[in-house]
Amino acid sequence: MRKYGSGKYMKFSAKQGCFGWRLLAAWIALPSILSAGETGYLSHPPMRPLPTASQRPLEKGPAFFVDAAKGEDKQDGSESKPWKTINYAAKKLKPGDTLYLRGGIYREHLAIEKTGAPDRPIIIRGYPGELAILDGGLREFFENPATAWEPTTDGAKGEFRSTRAYPDLRSTESNHAHVHGNFGDSMAPLHGYRNLVDLRSDNEFWTITNKMDAETGVACGPGLWYDPASESIHIRLAHTNWPFLEPAHQYRGETDPRKLPLIISGGLDGNRVQIKNCRHLHLQDLVIRGCHPVAIEVSQSKDLSLDRLTVYGCHHPINITTTRNLKIQDCAFRGIAGPWSSRSHLKYRGVEGGLFTAYGAEGNADFEISYSEFTDSCDGLFMGQIKNCKFHHNYVDNCSDDGFNLSANWTPEENTAYGNIQIYQNLLSRCLTMFAFGGKREGNKARTGSGVYIFRNVIDQRAPVFSGPSKDKEGIAEAMRYRGQMMGDHGHGLWEPVLFYQNTLLSQFGSERGIYGLGTVRHCGSQWRVLNNLFVQIEKPLATTIFNTGDGPDFLTDYNLHWSFQEGAEISDDEFINQVQIEARRQARADGRSEVSVENCAKWAVHDLVADPKFEKSPLDWRQPPAVHLKAGSPAIDRGGEIPREWPDPLRGQDKNKPDTGVVPFGCEPWKVGMYGRLSVFGEGN
Predict the structure, then answer these.
(1) Which residues on neighbouring strands pair with residue 440, listed in sequence order?
(2) HEC states along 383-445?
(3) Is residue 98 part of a domain?
(4) Which residues contact 210 (CB under 8 A, 6 or more apart)?
(5) How many domains is the chain partitioned into structurally?
(6) Which long-range contacts (CB under 8 A, 24 or more apart) does 576-583 make?
(7) Distances from the Cα of 396 to the Cαs of 300, 430, 441, 598, 648, in angstroms?
(8) Domain for residue 160, yes or no?
(9) With b meaning 16 or more CB within 10 Å and e meaning fewer, what string describes 346-383?
(10) How far apart are CA 550 and CA 54, in angstroms?
(11) What distance in Å separates the CA atoms of residue 100 and residue 77, rounded to the nearest whole number?
């Protein structure tokens, strides 16, 4: 039985506890308790709850200890005589040993290559009640900022540069942000600038014609730039006054970096946690920050567990290759997007970072990722190159480009090396494209994995996605109006086979290009099923177009409920179904499909329903959590079709009578998601 709230594995202070839904959405007004003047934060208030010490009890078995402040490596590693460095201690560990990190900051490049045993794993973890932080940053900017910076006399207003040179931060890559950072008090990200002209600019509008233009400046918020010529770091913490951002998302903190602790890292081989050729290893109760370009790098390993880690990333908080049997639980992976960061700022004028990357020619297999959080980045999770992955009870939010990339782009010829990815019982919100595809074709041969199951998720795309600043004041109203799409592709390739069922999807304006089911059917060409979903939009008429489903019978959509709060009542079920089939036949003939393919359209959407689902709470206000469980009398109750028994569904036994349409069966309680299960699947805090 999992423990939530004030369970034995967690402890929140009053200041850092569960702040509720509005704190967790970067574009929703922050609670007044987080205003800088009232909390003591000199920089921007935290975007997410800050890490706190775990109360996990001591393990049984042999124990050793490390203390960065008081330890010595020449000692015996006992609690009274701890070692000083983790690397030294790790070399001493044997199967069944536990290494405890006492509270403090450890400034090491941690390289682990250890083997435990199935019944006696090696555990490296924080000491109960103490916060152990692995920090790869340049320590002077955190410990002695007053002497680490000096004003730049020939720069912009408020620009400073480092008082010493950093030759090791050079990069061989072009268009590369060499340095990255976070405010040390709140962990809000600093922008990593590629170009000095942007750092010095006060221009908040996207006035450039070439998105990579290095001559015209675009301000991207408080941030850093590395000068390869002088080998110095430049910083500017100017206040933002962007008319397209709400006041809570503007930077209003301290502008003098000499008064702020900062976490700054850079270079192509910055400090990180490197796990290589490991077996039966557990990492628990740690904070990892200040790493560049990757915080945790896992390779050629097996039977690993990451439990209660908070990881602040740059390019990627975690990068995994050729690894099997990986379990991630109660972890938080935070990206580089500040409240003022858009897709354009990050992708073209900074660092196009992601949150989770798994790849490798030899393959990754058998992952389970649960009760974790992936937030605040340009891209989210690259999961296409995993065989057998269960991704459940997680919270994904605020990715200004792709949320999930699910294509096995480097799949071997047998086409089954990757796949069986199960994404279920999660809360997914605010991504420009929630699920992205783009598999390769080689001649007439398709290259995909063995399939993706997407089921029992709340997918909330009502809130604005900050795609990019407006071009001028005339476009201010549109800059934050764009809502993300549900599915999209890269390069019009072959999509993975997808079984998409028992989800509840919310959208503000419906789908891009008028696509049926809020855009869940686009460019697939593989096996595709869309069944028993609730598609709800706040504005605009319902869309009926289904296209590019391939020239064959392996596509079906049915038993879905559709509703538009603006114009849903103006179309009957029969009219909607008829229009879907007419549009599908027209598209098939226009594409030159076979007559068999045209006739298959008559099987689509025949049991679909257009009706108000009667949620317990109206979803009209995107600033409020999406409480989408069903009231008594909802037309979604007992309205779904039977799902094949071989398709996974943990709630099948709780769905009485016929299946209900949507995510939560009538009468069932919403489940918990996120780190320690601190949110409901509707986004409400404990």
Answers:
(1) 447
(2) CCCEEEEEEECCEEEEEEEEEEECCCCCCCCCCCCCEEEEEECCEEEEEEEEEEECEEEECCE
(3) no
(4) none
(5) 1
(6) 576/542, 576/544, 576/605, 576/608, 576/610, 577/605, 577/606, 577/608, 579/544, 580/516, 580/544, 580/546, 580/604, 580/605, 580/608, 581/605, 583/544, 583/545, 583/546
(7) 27, 8, 30, 38, 21
(8) yes
(9) bbbbbbbbbbbbbbeeebbbbbbbbbbbbbbbbbbbbb
(10) 52
(11) 10
Encoded tokens for 418: 């990757």
548: left (phi over 0), alpha (psi -120 to 50) or beta: left
Spatial CA neighbour of 514 closest among 600, 613, 605, 580: 580
Nearest Cα residue to 564 out of 532, 535, 603: 535
The answer to whether the Cα torsion of 544, 550, 553, 554 is positive or negative is negative
Q: Nearest 5°: phi and psi at 537? A: -125, 155
What Å distances lie between residue 196 and 174, 176, 214, 291, CA to CA? 14, 12, 9, 22
Counts for the chain of helices (H) and strands (E), in that order: 11, 42
DSSP 47-69: SSPPP----PPPPSS-EEEE-TT
* pLDDT tens column, 266-319: 876 666 899 999 999 999 999 999 998 899 999 999 999 999 999 998 888 999
**Contacts with 144 (C-beta within 8 Å, 6 or more apart), sequence order:** none
- Helix residue ranges, H only, 503-635: 516-519, 573-590, 595-600
Helix, strand, or coil here: 263? Answer: strand
> Would you mind telling me the total number of residues written for the chain in this entry?
686
| Tens digit of each residue's pLDDT (9 = 90 or more) over 89-126 | 999 999 999 999 999 999 999 999 999 999 999 999 99
What is the token pair recorded at 542? 């319902």
How far apart, in whole angstroms, are the C-alpha atoms of residue 420 and residue 437? 15
Instruction: Give me the residue label for tokens 């997007």.
Output: 337
In a domain, 18, yes or no: no
pLDDT digits (tens, 9 = 90+) for 581-617: 888 888 888 777 788 778 888 889 999 999 999 999 9
Whether residue 63 is contained in a domain is answered as no
> What residues make up the domain containing 166?
145-262
